[in-house]
Amino acid sequence: MDNKLKLKETIFIGSMLFGLFFGAGNLIFPVNMGQNAGSSVGLANIGFILTAVGLPFLGVLAMGVTGVGGVHELASKVDRRYAGVFTALLYLSISIFFAAPRLATTSFTIGVAPFVSKNNQQVALAIFSFVFYTLAWLLARNSAKILVVVGKFLNPIFLILLSSLLVMVFLKPLGVLNGVKVQPNYELSPFFEGFKAGYNTLDALAALAFGIVVISTIRQLGVKTKTAVAKEVLKSGIVVIILMSVIYTALTYAGVLSLGKFSLSENGGIALAELANYYLGLPGAILLAFIVTIACLKTAVGLITAFSEATEEMLPSVSYKKASILAAVLPAIFANVGLSAIISIAVPVLMFLYPLAMTLILLALLEQVIGYKKEVYVWVTIFTSVTALFDALNAATALKEVEFVKGILSIAKHLPFFDMGMGWIVPSIVGLFIGLAHAQLSPTGKTVKE
Q1: H/E element, 246
Q2: Which of 54, 153, 244, 296 could pair with 103 as two cysteines, CB 3.0-4.6 Å apart?
Q3: pLDDT band, very low/low/confident/very high, at 186 (cuts 50, 70, 90)
């Protein structure tokens, strides 16, 4: 018989899930978006919340309602070979090359760099990255304790510290919301720009990784059946939606208000540092250092845990302990590339992976209504992957001048929403209808209510 979680346990799981999600990008991207959106911040914020809050929630929910054991099993609904490639790309992106290194780099850039001379910053970053990921690895060694480490300890501390800074921003605002200059890229479609900005948090991708961590935690508390687990995931997800929406909105509007005193910054980390220094001086810089480091540390713990569990599942010869060492050492090395460089390299990859993750999540949820149809998964994935590749090439500044790429983009620009970075939307819908027709006409097509 399933245990029914108490309200306190639901809140702690919600706190853990929020803590896993809310790391580097979650702090810096909303602030930067607010500065760019200016007086159009309302629409931009709605778009941002849809991808940065709504999609991650749906991702975790999809893992819960389908009862799968991980990303690989979910992606195998398309094809096992595809599942291997997609799972590898996802975990390499969020746990090794982009999201994980960005955690240490963001912590250093915002929290430590202001106290280090420019001549010594490269060496200081290397030392900080080593210390940061050593601590993250120590906290992630036992995956069974992640609820305590993140949900009951690190995340509450983070929320208290961040709230103390945001309260000052709104009690004594530096500027106003109306009439603030809108940057060119937000003038035409602030909603879609905000929607795309939500990609940069990596949370829709992370949801597929963190989903199984949350489900495992719920099962450890005595909830076993798929239906009961899905209900507990939903309840915990509501906690996350509320927390993340409130904090994202506050950070976004803080970005707009900061323009009353400061100019547009290169990234949100700089803007946050300027705000903390303005309101509190040196104590503010120290406070922000703790805010950012704790935010990034708890997400690093989650990424190491998720990567290690997935690796152990896919490659039984590699133990959780060995995988966790790899998940800590490599990001510590790649962190030394620098924050702005990591962001610029990550964008094209995200433009490719995000649509694949989103359609996989939505198909998993749709499956609960129409049943499992392999043809639908296959056709949607084919159409999405091709057109998402066009979006990725369009976002790759270094490749846009290559003649072959220019030829592809000259054709791709005719796709609806391509100029907004979402040329995959209409083709994915076409793939859905083709898949449904194929499933209906195929003599071997099967519909399975799983």
Answers
A1: helix 226-258
A2: 296
A3: very high
Higher per-residue confidence, 179 vs 254: 254
Q: What Cα–Cα distance (Å) separates residue 94 from each residue in 58, 232, 346, 353?
A: 18, 26, 10, 11
Contact (Cβ atoms closer than 8 angstroms) between residue 329 and residue 25: no
Structure tokens belonging to residue 20: 């896993």
Query: How far apart are alpha carbons 348 and 327 in whole angstroms?
Result: 23
Distance CA 381, CA 439 (A): 15
Q: Two tokens at 215?
A: 């489900």
Q: Which residue has the tokens 């950070």?
A: 251
Q: Radius of gyration (Cα) for the chain, nearest Å?
A: 22
Confidence at residue 448, expressed as pLDDT on a 0 to 100 scale: 46
H or E element: which one contains 447? none
d(CA 41, CA 303): 31
Q: What is the mean pLDDT of residues 233-262?
A: 93
What is the CATH code for 7-337?
1.20.1740.10
Domain boundaries along the sequence of the chain: 7-337, 347-450
What helix, strand, coil percent values describe the chain, rounded to 5? 80, 0, 20
DSSP string across 346-407: HHHHHHHHHHHHHHHHHHHHHHHHH-B-HHHHHHHHHHHHHHHHHHHHHH-TTTTTSHHHHH
- The answer to whether residue 35 scores a pLDDT higher than 80 is yes
- Residue in 196, 189, 186 with CA at minimum distance from that of residue 255: 186
Six-digit token pair at 336? 């030394």
* Position 397 pLDDT exceeds 90: no
According to the model, what pLDDT value does residue 126 have? 93
Cα distances from 37 to residues 43, 48, 252, 264, 343, in angstroms, run 9, 11, 9, 11, 19
Q: Is pLDDT of 446 > 60?
A: no
Prediction pTM value: 0.82
pLDDT of residue 1: 58
Listed in sequence order, the DSSP H helices in 67-202 are 71-75, 80-91, 99-107, 121-140, 146, 155-171, 184-187, 190-197
For residue 99, give every residue at least 6 positions away whose Cβ sits within 8 Å of its Cβ, in sequence order, or none. Answer: 23, 24, 25, 93, 202, 205, 206, 299, 303
What average pLDDT is seen over the chain? Answer: 88
* Cross-strand partners of 372: 448
Q: How far apart are CA 426 and CA 114, in angstroms?
A: 46
How far apart (Å, rounded) are the C-alpha atoms in residues 423 and 391? Answer: 7
